[in-house]
């Protein structure tokens, strides 16, 4: 096992690159299952979830090479449509193979993803959409068994604009017979990039980036290459690392329009933000103002930034309320932040954060990906030493975050430990 040791109080200064987006790569990769050729995806982050998806697709018969952020995926020998529990339980995004396998091969057996650190994460919208497209769906011994001759286009409305269900339906509809309308679709940048990639393969999609997406099914799709978008959540996390330490940092290789809401909230908190087409600079100006946040689907404030915002508000002047409307119980980071001296009370799906003058280093434990990011941020600002256990969580979605923070002046190191 490994842990981080952070000696807090260093002001972060300088420039840092943002990696490719984990949550778009996790959709782009299974999308290549829709064709039987060789596809290349550039700007893929070196994070553990990508390696889990590589393992899963290799199990299906894909031949994948991953070298310096470039994924080469050859699907000419995909011959297995079973996604086993051993792999799916490690990563919910494995459900993204359902749509492509079903629409290309007429059969998919995918383990139910199970829960996650902060509670149930249903997949009913995915299954209802596949049924609407004509699939027979059975649940057997913890597996989804989906069968269909050729899927048929349908009109599908999502009561909740689910990112994953929108992605699965886009991929399934791309090879269905006839046209599909997705109403109340997710508009996250990761879904836009998936739709753009499918279009490059020959899919016929209108309304990309809107809540009404129309897909005209085609008979086959061809291999294509794609340059992945930057990771907007890593960008937001690094901006808060700069702000929580009173620093001045420039992010490179970022798409500012993907983080507009986060930038607005950071300005309200008293930071000076400047951006051009692929850089964002944050300058600290002294005190951190207390700013309430309510998470929402894109372009609202992302739930994946909720934990990081709570860490920042722990040191703000005054009280702020952070409400998560997407995942009402995503607050496992709160008791760990309290160990560092934060004053937070969780009331239903809100955290009421009373800013404190300072945080003090302690030993804390990661519980999930974004919770661990919030602990790193708090540790950077805390006086003294913070030790963060179970950092395998953070490695799922951040590429060697300690290296990036070190280049900005943080005193952080990754060490081996038998502590769990
Ligand atoms: C994606 O998960 C992201 N993961 C999550 O990021 C992110 O938190 C989430 O979108 C919301 O933005 C990837 O892209 C791999 P949803 P996903 O389906 O697709 C409910 C991270 O930290 N829902 O948009 O699973 C669900 O319970 C991860 O990088 C249903 O009710 O999210 C939730 O309340 C964590 N039925 C809401 O929709 C369904 O069938 C949004 O979920 C599906 C979802």
UniProtKB/TrEMBL annotation:
Residues binding UDP-N-acetyl-alpha-D-glucosamine are: 92, 304, 326
From the UniProt record, give the pathway where this protein acts: Cell wall biogenesis; peptidoglycan biosynthesis
Active site at which residues?
A: 116
Name of the top EC class for this enzyme: transferase
Q: What is its EC number?
A: 2.5.1.7
Presence of the UniProt keyword Cell cycle in the record: yes
Q: Which residues form the Enolpyruvate transferase domain?
A: 7-405
User: What is the name attached to this protein's record?
Assistant: UDP-N-acetylglucosamine 1-carboxyvinyltransferase
């Amino acid at each position: 096992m490994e842990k981080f040791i952070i000696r807090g109080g260093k002001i972060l200064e300088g420039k840092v690159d943002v990696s490719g987006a984990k949550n778009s790569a996790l959709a782009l990769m299974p999308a290549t299952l829709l064709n039987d050729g060789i596809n290349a995806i550039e700007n893929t982050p070196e994070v553990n979830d990508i390696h889990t998806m590589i393992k899963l697709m290799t199990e299906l018969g894909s031949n994948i090479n991953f070298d310096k952020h470039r994924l080469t995926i050859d699907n000419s020998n995909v011959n297995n449509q079973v996604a086993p529990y051993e792999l799916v339980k490690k990563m919910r995004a494995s459900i993204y193979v359902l749509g492509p396998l079903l629409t290309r091969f007429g059969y998919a057996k995918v383990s139910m993803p199970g829960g996650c650190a902060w509670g149930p994460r249903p997949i009913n919208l995915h299954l209802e959409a596949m049924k609407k497209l004509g699939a027979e769906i059975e649940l057997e011994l913890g597996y989804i068994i989906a069968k269909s001759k050729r899927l048929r286009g349908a009109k599908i409305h999502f009561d909740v604009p689910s990112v994953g269900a929108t992605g699965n339906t886009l991929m399934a509809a791309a090879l269905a017979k006839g046209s599909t309308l997705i109403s109340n679709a997710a508009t996250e940048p990761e879904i836009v990039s998936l739709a753009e990639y499918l279009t490059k393969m020959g899919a016929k999609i209108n309304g990309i980036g809107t809540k009404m997406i129309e897909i005209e099914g085609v008979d086959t799709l061809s291999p294509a290459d794609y340059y992945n978008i930057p990771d907007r959540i890593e960008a937001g996390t690094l901006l808060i690392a700069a702000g929580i330490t009173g620093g001045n940092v420039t992010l490179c290789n970022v798409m500012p329009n993907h983080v507009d809401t986060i930038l607005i909230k950071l300005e309200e908190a008293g930071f000076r933000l400047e951006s051009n087409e692929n850089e964002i600079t944050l300058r600290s100006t002294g005190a951190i103002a207390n700013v309430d946040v309510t998470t929402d689907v894109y372009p609202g404030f992302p739930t994946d930034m909720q934990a990081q915002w709570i860490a920042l508000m722990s040191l703000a002047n005054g009280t702020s309320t952070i409400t998560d409307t997407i995942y009402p119980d995503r607050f496992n980071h709160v008791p760990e932040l309290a160990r560092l001296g934060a004053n937070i009370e969780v009331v239903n799906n809100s955290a009421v954060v009373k800013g404190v003058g300072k945080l003090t280093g302690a030993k804390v434990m990661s519980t999930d990906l974004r919770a661990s990011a919030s602990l790193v941020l708090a540790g950077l600002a805390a006086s003294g030493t913070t030790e963060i256990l179970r950092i395998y969580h953070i490695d799922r979605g951040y590429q060697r975050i300690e290296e990036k923070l070190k280049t900005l002046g943080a005193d952080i190191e990754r060490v081996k430990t038998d502590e769990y």
